[in-house]
Write a structure and sequence with these properties.
Order of helices and strands: HEHHEHEHEHEHEEEHHHEEHEEEH
Largest sheet: 7 strands, mixed
Strand content: 15-25%
Number of strands: 13
CATH architecture of the largest domain: 3-Layer(aba) Sandwich
Number of helices: 12
CATH superfamily of the largest domain: Type I PLP-dependent aspartate aminotransferase-like (Major domain)
Radius of gyration: 21 Å
Structural class: alpha/beta
Shape: globular
Strand order of the largest sheet: 2-8-7-6-5-3-4
């Protein structure tokens, strides 16, 4: 006979799991031009593809060794080995930092709108998440953010360039925030560094509470292999390493990463493609009287207003995917388009023109040109 379990006695997760927000990326049916997730829209370095072809079946049976590749990565970035940790993408990096430094009752501070996974990982550890909302300019509200720091602040995460806005935070302001909160870890998420160029990674040896996150999913084109990194003070990295699995990064990613970072000519080519494409998209949207905001990343945010869902549907009909960001705080009616290589930008702009005409969109619906 099977036992009858009373509903009140069924297994329940921690209260934090019930309360935390849930991320639902729209991944289904992406067999189109991918201008929705800010990925490299073309390919990784040809040297990565050659390395993949050299992998043996025996290599698949071995637990991956992270440390030898971490030494190569540290050398590439001019850092000491104990200041680097490779992670399963920046998503895991965020999770590990939250696990290592947050207790219930601690405060964590972010500026919204921003990458939603900060909410997820922080909320799993503490109910003390504080959000500072940007105004309509979508620039980083430095003074208000600084004023939100309290003695209970234990973690601060800032993306520069920020997703989904493309806004940046100056090195001067970042270091001022680190100095204002010596009791807190400041994690600067530089996932879109290559399309911007400014960085604080050179400061990790002198700022004891600074951690910089980087991804190899964007410019390097390794999103499918899930690999990122943290760079920071050796003491902070040792705590994060302690909560990390020793086999968190898969062996295929580790095998190709040295080739990916060594091919700087390819990265420079791809970044040049994005820079040129970004200017073309801005010019097209200006001509169409669509409001945009400055972006230092490989995407552009645009204000479509009430027709945002119709635009995304019309673009999908034409084989081009956009990302509707209307659910983000302060982003009602906003849609994001990824900037890729020249041909993809051409296709994206053409589809935008046709789609806006099809849905009968007018500039007044998007509140005009910013």
């Amino acid at each position: 006979m099977s036992a009858v379990i009373e509903p009140t006695k069924t297994v329940q997760p921690r209260k934090a799991v019930l309360a935390m927000p849930e991320y639902h990326p729209p991944l289904a049916g992406r067999d189109a031009l991918r201008l929705d997730f800010n990925e490299n829209t073309f390919a990784p370095s040809p040297s990565v593809l050659r390395k993949l072809q050299q992998l043996t079946s025996e290599a698949m049976t071995i637990y991956p060794e992270r440390e030898p590749v971490e030494r190569i990565v540290a050398d590439h970035f001019g850092l000491q080995r104990d200041r680097i940790l490779l992670t399963n993408g920046v998503d895991e990096a965020i999770h590990l930092v939250a696990c290592a430094f947050l207790d219930e009752g601690d405060e964590a501070l972010i500026c919204t709108p921003t990458f939603f996974m900060y909410d997820v990982s922080i909320s799993l550890m503490t109910s003390g998440l504080k959000r500072v909302q940007s105004d309509d300019s979508l620039t980083f509200p430095f003074e208000r953010f600084l004023a939100a720091i309290t003695p209970k602040t234990k973690l601060i995460i800032i993306a520069s360039p920020n997703n989904p806005t493309g806004a940046t935070v100056s090195r001067e302001h970042l270091l001022a925030i680190a100095a204002a909160a010596p009791q807190a870890v400041l994690m600067v998420d530089e996932a879109y560094f290559h399309f911007y160029g400014d960085t604080t990674i050179g400061d990790v040896g002198s700022i004891p509470n600074l951690i910089v996150a980087r991804t190899f999913s964007k410019a390097y084109g390794l999103a499918n292999l899930r690999i990122g990194m943290l760079a920071g003070d050796a003491r902070l990295i040792s705590f994060i390493r302690k909560v990390s699995s020793p086999y968190n990064v898969n062996g295929v990613a580790l095998a190709v990463l040295p080739d990916a970072i060594a091919d700087e000519a390819y990265i420079n080519w791809y970044v040049d493609q994005v820079h040129g494409g970004r200017e073309r998209i801005f010019a097209a949207l200006h001509e169409l009287h669509v409001r945009t905001w400055p972006s230092a990343a490989n995407f552009v945010l645009m204000d479509i207003g009430p027709r945002h869902k119709e635009l995304c549907a019309a673009m999908r009909k034409r084989g081009v995917l956009l990302r509707d960001r209307s659910a983000d705080p302060g982003c009602d009616g906003y849609v994001r388009i990824t900037v890729g290589v020249e041909d993809h930008v051409t296709r994206g702009i053409a589809a935008l023109r046709e789609s806006l005409a099809e849905i009968g969109w007018t500039p007044a619906e998007g509140r005009g040109q910013a």
